[in-house]
Write a structure and sequence with these properties.
The chain is mainly alpha-helical. The chain has 2 domains: about 80 residues, Orthogonal Bundle (Rna Polymerase Sigma Factor, Chain: A); about 80 residues, Winged helix-like DNA-binding domain superfamily/Winged helix DNA-binding domain (Arc Repressor Mutant, subunit A, Orthogonal Bundle). It is about 75% helix and about 0% strand. It is globular and about 50 Å long. The termini are far apart.
Length: about 180
């Protein structure tokens, strides 16, 4: 079933929308959540919550790219769950810690970037990078994949992936500095 057909089911309030969503994207949604949470049960709960949020938000929303829409919901839910699960521990195993030193100053600056503005800056930065760099960056920091998973999926060496991530983070720091956010 195509994305447009699944969205149509949501718009018609057909309960089949949930089952079709799970059939088409359940594995991906669980993977997004699992890469952040490292817990299969929590990942499955995020998948279910994603379907519920999609049910409650379509309509009025009518996403053009259902996969991206659902992944964004699952990603946010997983990060919320991660924050909840680690509130006392603060373990730091999530790869977003790698990004923290790049964006912390920009995000906490006096004029305080909003999440939307930060997203626009990141989109601008990534838009100026080559395809492979964007894929590695998104796999690492959006989907939460490990360096070894990225290397395996891209048929590359781990050292190449580490090097690309390191170089990209350095370039991101420089980009944010040029935008007026001293890191």
């Amino acid at each position: 079933m195509t994305d447009q057909e699944i969205v149509r089911l949501y718009l018609e309030r057909s309960e089949n929308a949930i089952s079709e969503t799970k059939a088409a994207y359940g594995r991906l949604l669980r993977s997004v959540a699992y890469n952040i949470l490292q817990n299969a049960q929590d990942a499955e709960e995020c998948e279910n919550e994603t379907c519920l949020k999609a049910w409650n938000s379509i309509p009025p929303n009518k996403p053009q790219r259902l996969c991206a829409y659902l992944c964004k919901i699952a990603h946010r839910l997983a990060l919320d769950r991660y924050d909840y699960n680690t509130a006392a521990k603060r373990s730091g195993s999530i790869p977003l810690d790698e990004l923290e030193e790049c964006i912390a100053s920009a995000y906490s600056a006096e004029d305080r970037l909003t999440a939307t503005a930060l997203g626009e800056l990141l989109n601008s930065f990534l838009g100026s990078r080559d395809y492979d760099t964007r894929v590695i960056f998104m796999r690492r920091f959006w989907f939460g994949e490990s360096i070894s998973e990225i290397a395996k999926n891209l048929h590359a060496t781990e050292s190449m992936v580490k090097s690309r991530i390191s170089r990209t983070l350095k370039q991101l720091r420089e980009f944010l500095k040029k935008e007026g956010y001293d890191i």
